[in-house]
Write a structure and sequence with these properties.
The chain has 554 residues and is an alpha/beta fold. The protein is 39% helix and 16% strand. It is built from 21 helices and 20 strands. Helix 9 (214-227) packs parallel to helix 11 (317-330) and helix 13 packs across helix 14 (390-398). It is globular and about 70 Å long.
């Protein structure tokens, strides 16, 4: 007779075989067997104070490593608490395993305590959602789940383990993972793409979320060093090229036309690289679909009248770029581009980024100055995490990067609440780097309970809160459309007492001249630090006015 084991033990062994090292979450009664099995494994379980925080931690872990982590909740409210962070990860292409408990199969067919259709609820926000209905199926289910989570484009996968199935005996063993290189496009279509580039005079690259993989970024930089073609990134493509490179045209993605929009207007060919339509809709940069487009991505282009590529290179993005680079190098003497307008646009935007570097205000701090000082305080490989709110718009426009995956912004699902839990995970992945998160006061309070998790984990993180006492982005948008806004104000805690109660270092910094020293003090502190600044959001309306007056000529 062959050896048998409990299903929950097999489940954990399968996760170990897949290389899963971390699970974040809040357990419950229905996954007690799984937790007992997990206790003796090599997988580290991080207890969080809310399931949403667990999901955001797993999301950031996946975005930084390319490998999924687990986020765990029990049935019913545990599963519903997870779902916002799961949806955020899935739309931002982060590999993730969602692990939930469930009531016994003998009571799922009827009204029963906390029973709900978790799989049905998760199907719209995951790549795959499945409930284990037999212990012997666990190895295949876990192999499929991890493979789907990792496969481009990555995302979230749910596996539900009912409490009675977890106790069953099985003689199955884990499946060994087998991973293969993704294919690239064929030569004929690559030749066609190269011909379009060779015949262009003012080509431009729009780098999206898929361009920040290390290999893709390396090949992109090689292409740009050879050709000089300018690159602008979406919010999630930051760092695909170095902010200091002459061909870096910074970031696009605001709802309004910006300085860098002029480069798109001038371009006769747009090369999109790892671009997701959810990042910045093409109707905002290509109304009417008039631009010639080469689409380079892992998947074919979404069908949209404003985004209708003439050529698509489908497959591994890095390999597609390598194939183009081979052709560009062989025929580089045949390339003749007029890229001077792009250089002028870069210079104009660079002036905007530097305009407030010497601000000396009292009582509140301009967003531009805050981000200038943060950029100066952080190194090239340090990581900044942004929440969602008015601060996100300023970070997207004014915080530029040297390396991929050094600025993490929620941009597909756009959920608030990510910076604090995300920073905890980032510190676990990169303890050798400085981790800095920026949140609005509304964003920060949505997962404020994870301050305890950071303190317990001794996380070396700094969180900066921009305090304006209201939902600033909503008021900004209402003002733009209606010339007024509804009541969006709220009160805040005593930030320094809050920091002290959780064992954090705390600083309140009302004056611009004191900010850089406060940032250095926080970053040098061992353990979590909180820096709060009163933010001058009068700059929101001023930016809107200035962008509305952008010259239509370069």
């Amino acid at each position: 007779m062959s050896d048998t084991m409990k299903a929950s033990d097999l489940f954990v062994r399968c996760l170990e075989e897949e290389g899963i090292t971390h699970i974040f979450g809040v357990p419950g009664e229905e996954n007690a067997d799984f937790m007992m099995s997990l206790e003796g494994s090599s997988i580290q379980f991080i207890l969080t104070r809310h399931e949403q925080g667990a999901a955001f931690m797993a999301e950031v872990y996946g975005r930084l490593t390319g490998n999924p982590a687990g986020c765990l909740g029990t049935l019913g409210p545990g599963a519903t608490n997870l779902i916002t962070g799961v949806a955020d990860a899935n739309m931002d292409r982060a590999p993730m395993l969602v692990l939930t408990g469930q009531g016994a199969t003998a009571r799922q067919h009827k009204e029963s305590h906390q029973i709900m259709d978790v799989v049905g609820m998760y199907e719209p926000v995951t790549k795959w959602a499945y409930s284990v209905n037999h212990a012997d199926a666990i190895p295949e289910i876990i192999r499929k789940a991890v493979r789907l989570a990792r496969t481009e484009k990555p995302g979230a996968v749910l596996v539900e383990l009912p409490e009675d199935i977890a106790k069953h005996e099985t003689d199955r063993t884990p499946m060994q993972p087998r991973r293969f290189r993704r294919p690239g496009p064929d030569d004929k279509i690559t030749d066609r793409a190269f011909d379009m580039i060779r015949n262009a005079k003012r080509p431009l690259i729009l780098a999206g979320n898929g361009a920040i993989r290390k290999r893709a970024s390396s090949q992109l930089r090689t292409l740009c060093e050879t050709t000089g073609i300018g690159v602008m990134s979406t919010f999630m493509g930051k760092g695909a090229v170095d902010m200091d490179a002459d061909y870096c045209l910074y970031t696009i993605g605001l709802g309004q036309r910006d300085v860098v929009s002029l480069a798109i207007d001038d371009a006769d060919l747009i090369i999109t690289l790892g671009y997701d339509m959810v990042e910045y809709h093409p109707k905002l940069w290509n109304p009417g679909g008039k631009k010639d487009i080469i689409h380079i991505d892992f998947l074919p282009a979404e069908i949209d009248r404003n985004y209708h590529p003439k050529c698509e290179l489908i497959g591994d993005v890095a390999h597609s770029l390598w194939m183009l680079n081979e052709r560009i190098w062989r025929h580089r003497d045949e390339l003749s581009f007029d890229l001077e307008p792009q250089r002028k646009i870069r210079a104009r935007m660079k002036e905007e980024l530097e305009a407030h570097c010497d601000d000396d205000t009292e009582g509140s701090i301009r967003p531009q100055k805050a981000l200038w000082d943060v950029r100066q305080a952080l190194g090239k490989d340090d990581i900044l995490l942004s929440g969602v709110g008015a601060h996100k718009m300023w970070i997207a426009r004014h915080y530029q990067c040297h390396e991929p995956n050094t600025c993490l912004i929620p941009n597909g699902f756009c959920s608030m609440g990510m910076p604090l839990p995300g920073a905890i995970a980032a510190d676990m992945v990169h303890p050798d780097r400085r981790i800095f998160a920026i949140a609005g006061d509304g964003d920060f309070m949505m997962n404020v309970q994870e301050m305890e998790t950071a303190s317990r984990m001794k996380s070396n993180i700094t969180v900066m809160v921009w305090e304006d006492g209201g939902y600033g982005l909503i008021s900004w948008k209402q003002e733009n459309e209606f010339n007024r806004h509804t009541n969006l104000s709220f009160t805040n805690p005593d930030w320094m007492k809050l920091a002290d109660s959780f064992g954090w270092q705390g600083q309140y910094v009302p004056n611009s001249r004191d900010l850089r020293a406060a940032l250095d003090k926080a970053l040098e502190h061992e353990g979590p630090s909180l820096v709060v600044i009163p933010i001058d959001y009068r700059e929101n309306a001023l930016l809107t006015e200035r962008l509305g007056q952008i010259d239509v000529t370069i």
